[in-house]
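Example S7 (structure tokens).
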């Protein structure tokens, strides 16, 4: 007997019973639909989101006390999903319906009746929950955004978030929990120079390329609004976030492992834009170097470079990543391990991916 799967099914059964038991005392319909930024081409786009019966969260305050941050985080983590909700999606006079799964998620590909305008980076998708809608809410609709790389884009960027952009201490449990639970989107800090570097990559050497930036992380979808607000507040280029479902399923508490999740998400992005090369950015704390090595083997010269932030000072880890760098180089790409953002910015400037002004701005922030 597969005991892990048996335990997962038992836990899922208990979760379903709890949901049914509390339904009469809580909301029986949707109070909010959370759209996730999608992506695609002028002829086909991918959009996803989640239907919840929770009351939408309040706006974050810079000076919120730690106990308020803790309460807000628990409200996000304790999501009341709406399964089986019917959602209407429309873009450019094209309409289709989707149904939310047992965790409230919906996902759909849409093919507009006419190609989307090629100049803009973001395009709007109208989203409406048809049923069930909570009696206090009335009509429930919102607008989602999908990213379509313009003709000016020379490359794309796929980046990790935790300990790559956002200071998380993911390799140390207590500091990670303190940052995640007791801080908020406006008090969390990025690594020095990240905003300037990513803006430089987005704008490109000429300053008008609008190169798309994607974020792939194993953080739970419940923290989507926090991470998006963090990027906006820190003036880091926005892009689609691909996070992970931490809900209980029949396969396990975490349906997909860290490596499997990230590799699958990166493949989906690369396959959506077969003519666009990419730069990969991550950190040494988990499996990013190994995952990106596999991506380089699979996609070859489409991976221009791999930038890894060194957050694990152990010499053995540095040596292991050095061996991966040799392997990546043999395939025709590059892997750079660095202690700060400035080394990556200088390397990108040498290759013509960012301008010298970006290097100066990163250096100034780090100083």
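Recovered sequence:
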């Amino acid at each position: 007997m597969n005991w892990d799967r048996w335990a997962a099914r038992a836990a899922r059964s208990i979760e379903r019973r709890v949901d049914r038991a509390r339904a009469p005392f809580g909301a029986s319909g949707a109070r909010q639909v959370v759209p996730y930024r999608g992506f695609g081409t002028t002829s086909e786009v991918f959009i996803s989101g989640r239907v919840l019966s929770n009351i939408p969260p309040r706006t974050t305050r810079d000076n919120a006390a730690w106990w308020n941050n803790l309460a807000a985080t628990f409200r996000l983590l304790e999501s009341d999903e709406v399964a089986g909700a019917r959602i209407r999606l429309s873009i450019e006079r094209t309409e289709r319906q989707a149904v939310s799964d047992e965790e409230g998620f919906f996902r759909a590909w849409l093919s507009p009746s006419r190609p989307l305008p090629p100049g803009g980076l973001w395009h709007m998708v109208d989203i409406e929950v048809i049923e069930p809608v909570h009696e206090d809410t009335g009509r429930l609709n919102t607008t989602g955004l999908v990213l379509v790389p313009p003709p000016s884009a020379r490359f794309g960027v796929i980046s990790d978030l935790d300990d790559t952009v956002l200071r998380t201490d993911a390799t140390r449990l207590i500091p990670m929990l303190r940052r995640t639970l007791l801080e908020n989107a406006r008090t969390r800090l990025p690594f020095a120079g990240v905003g300037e570097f990513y803006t430089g990559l987005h704008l490109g050497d000429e300053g008008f390329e609008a190169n798309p930036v994607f974020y792939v992380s194993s953080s739970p979808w419940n923290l989507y609004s926090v991470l998006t607000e963090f990027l906006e507040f820190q003036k880091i280029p926005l892009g689609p976030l691909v996070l992970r479902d931490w809900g209980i399923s029949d396969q396990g508490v975490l349906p997909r492992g860290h490596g499997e999740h990230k590799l699958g998400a990166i493949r989906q992005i690369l396959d959506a834009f077969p003519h666009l090369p990419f730069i990969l950015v991550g950190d040494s704390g988990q499996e990013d170097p190994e995952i990106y090595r596999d991506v380089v083997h699979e996609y070859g010269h489409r991976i221009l470079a791999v930038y890894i932030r060194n957050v694990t000072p152990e010499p053995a880890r540095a040596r292991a990543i050095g061996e991966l760098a040799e392997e990546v180089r043999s395939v025709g790409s590059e892997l750079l391990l660095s202690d700060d953002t400035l080394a990556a910015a200088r390397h990108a400037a040498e290759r013509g991916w960012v301008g010298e002004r970006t290097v100066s701005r990163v250096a100034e922030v780090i100083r």
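Notes on this example. Residues 3-147 form a domain with the Immunoglobulin-like fold (CATH 2.60.40.10).
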